[in-house]
Amino acid sequence: MAEMTEMREYLAAVRVALAGVPARDRDEAVAELEANLRADVGRRGDNPAALAAALTDLGTPEQYAEAVRDALGVESGSPEPQGHLLGMPYEFRAPTTARIMERMWNPSNPQIFMPRLWGMGWAINFGAIAVRLGLMRPDDVEQRPFENLSARAVSLAVAVPATLGAIALVIAAAFWSRLPASVPLHFDAAGAADDWGPKAVVIGLLLLFGSGLPAVVLGWQALRRSSPGTLAITSVLLALFSTLSVVILAYTVANAVYHIAGWWIGALILGSLVVPGAMFVLLARSSLKAEWRSATEPRDSDPEEGAR
Amino acid sequence: MAGNDARTSQFRKGAVELAILALLDAGELYGAEIVERLSILPGIAVTSGTVYPLLGRLNKAGLVDSVWRESPLGPPRKYYRLSAAGSSDLKDMAASWRGLSSAIDALLKEVGSRG
Fold it and tell me: What is the DSSP string of B31-74?
């Protein structure tokens, strides 16, 4: 029964492509497809050629899964994580631009805590915060977010993580010889160091996230000639990492070299979130304004309009 | 134009849903029959890949009911029919579709005569 295997394989592939859709909806969608597919094959003659023709009409399993998501998406407005473990959402699929936007910059969704992009826990929906602060309206995002940004705005966005990454490198280089062999690895709520590690490892890790990651990711995007929107969104995400790195690196140096400590480091780390948040708001506004301008420009120069 | 395709597919999705409900108003049908009847309408041009997911959605939304029936050849078939909610939804959607389409037609007529 080679044809049965082929149908089972197609159904299994659709199920895989539906990862992230709630289990019940996924089961229903696959059962629905199986019922319809069997009836279709039956009426086409119930032979291998009939199955092949029916499968061709359906498109690839990925396309079919996309159509199911599309159909279900009309009703479920909130992003679904890959799964839950002990009540916490987890996500181990590679982040896509669409998923970053849906979870970190989604003004149309009032929910502030979203399933995290990668790993376990939650992400912050800066879009919802901007709406609550009165900076944005829930519908203030284009179909293809940030794609109308000017080259200058995109370069400015890219410059944020690039500059912060460079600052991290400069701080590490300037204080390297003055740092003791083991430096603080963890701080308690009062800001005092309570765990130490070799300086090459601690500083290396901070630089990896703050400088290495932006360099690799931005380099990769440049090679792929990513669209302005993708570059801007990636820059915001990288800015989050590099801001945190610079803040933690500076505090580690201050603590190890000058013995400075205080509870305010916790507030400062939380405050780092302001950087990506502000970038989202500024970029969204800039892109929207560019879109409005391009929508009104042709009207001004329309010769027919002027003649009347 | 890519943007044009995206827009067309947006309003086509709503239209295909309405078309499915309209077909089922005449009586119950199984999935492949719905695809066949829609695919011969040139303006709609759908495949099973778009119709089945929409049937799933309509079923989940309670607008259509499904029932298994024996078939003269091959395996049993899953038939769809309008539910009570689907019937009243169809009436609402049909009314707003007619209103919308006559308004748009009137506007498009002007576009044609001007150009």
Answer: HHHHHHHHHTSTTT---HHHHHHHHHHHHHTTSEEEEEE--SSS
d(CA A130, CA A114): 15
Compute the mean pLDDT over every residue in chain A, rounded to the nearest whole number: 82
pLDDT for A304: 43
Partners of A120 in the beta sheet?
Answer: A90
pLDDT at position A302, please? 43
pLDDT in tens, A153-178: 999 999 999 999 999 999 999 999 99
Q: Is this complex scored with an ipTM above 0.90? A: no
Residue A145 main-chain phi, psi, to 5 deg: -60, 140
CA distance A68 to chain B (A): 5
CB within 8 Å: B48 and A42? no
Substitution target in A36, A37, A69, A302 with the highest count of B β-carbons within 10 Å is A36
- Assign residue A146 a region: left if phi > 0, alpha if psi is -120 to 50, beta otherwise? left
Paired with B64 in beta bridges are B82
pLDDT of amino acid B9: 66
pLDDT tens profile A81-136: 777 776 677 777 667 777 777 778 777 677 777 777 666 667 788 887 877 777 77
Among the partner residues B32, B49, B61, nearest to A67 by beta-carbon distance:
B49
Q: In the predicted model, what is the mean pLDDT of residues A284-289?
A: 84
3-class secondary-structure state, position A195: strand
**Token pair in block for residue B3:** 């943007």
- Whether chain A has a CB inside 8 Å of the CB on B35: the answer is yes
Strand, helix or coil for residue B115: coil
